[in-house]
Amino acid sequence: MINFSLNYRKVTVKNSSGDMVVAYKAYATAQATGKLTCDEFLEHQENKHNSVYSKSDYRAMIHQICLGIVDRCSDGVKVQVGNFGAFYPSISANGVTDPSLFFPSSDIKKVYVNWAKNRRFANFDNNKEKPAYNKVLTKVDEANAVQANNVGSDSMVLHTTASKEAAFA
User: Fold this and answer.
1) Which residues neighbour 94 within 8 Å (Cβ) at sequence distance 6 or greater?
2) Hey, is 22 helix, strand or coil?
3) What's the whole-model pTM score?
4) Which pairing describes strands 85-93 and 79-81: parallel, antiparallel, or unpaired?
5) Tell me: the pLDDT tens digits for 26-42?
6) H-helix or E-strand containing 42?
């Protein structure tokens, strides 16, 4: 089940007279229900999916794959890893007005490995069964509820039910 909350966002839309105006729309935002460590995930793989590999086998494979991806990306190669997607190098650099004044050693700030997810890996659209959904409080409202409970307050303001302007206050 995927938990979600509704959050207001500013959008620009055309009104009935054709003018562009700022409006507020509520959008669903996925809310994580927990976090797995690598060990917990690997135990899940080992135990729940009848895998012939042990947790240490998976850990070694992941480590080796990561080293290989970084190595090949540092050579400027895009690495396609099955249904996971592709990993590729990306650069963050200072801009210059004159290309002859661009010096990689000083103007390139960072080199990253980016991930382009594969469509089959990334979406639930290709699964036979669609996930179930459950509406929950936003993380901010959940924290406010815990705080109100801790101080013994009988009331609190929820951003999802407050006015649109209050959502941006």
Assistant:
1) 106, 107, 109
2) strand
3) 0.56
4) antiparallel
5) 888 888 888 888 888 88
6) helix 38-48
